[in-house]
Design goal:
It is a single chain. The chain has 129 residues and is mainly α. It is built from six helices and no strands. The model has no long low-confidence stretch (mean pLDDT 83).
């Protein structure tokens, strides 16, 4: 009886720890940031990518990693999102990879390091040949 109760308590504590650590991992990435409109972000790179691509990439990243897209910045490291996602067994990274495959990006010669790198990769695939 007490053994089952003890195991139940340990499992509950473990689940709470994973949720807490994941929350603080994401919070560390977006700490002290104020939301920026995606159109403002686009203006800084308007010569490199379309507004549609900016919105698409930022919303996919936000959905995958459970972050408000307006808190994501172009110079954010994709590795930092991936590291935070490891607390959820890489569910967000898997979701991002599935999306990339769905838009025709199956193999990547050079892995993107930042959100801007990913954005430019997606934009290069969106441009008509």
């Amino acid at each position: 009886m007490y053994t089952a109760l003890l195991w139940g308590g340990l499992i509950a504590i473990g689940i709470m720890a994973v949720i807490t650590f994941r929350y603080f991992s994401i919070r560390r990435i977006t700490f002290n940031r104020t939301p920026i409109d995606l159109q403002a972000i686009h203006r800084s790179i308007a010569d490199k990518a379309s507004l549609d691509t900016v919105k698409q990439v930022f919303h996919v990243l936000g959905d995958a990693y459970l972050v408000d897209p307006r808190l994501i910045r172009l110079d954010d490291s994709l590795r930092s999102f991936s590291n935070a996602d490891s607390w959820q067994l890489d569910v967000g990274t898997e979701q991002l990879n599935k999306w990339l495959q769905s838009i025709g990006i199956k193999e990547i010669e050079t892995q993107p390091n930042t959100v801007l790198d990913l954005l430019l990769l997606v934009e290069s695939r969106n441009k008509p040949s």
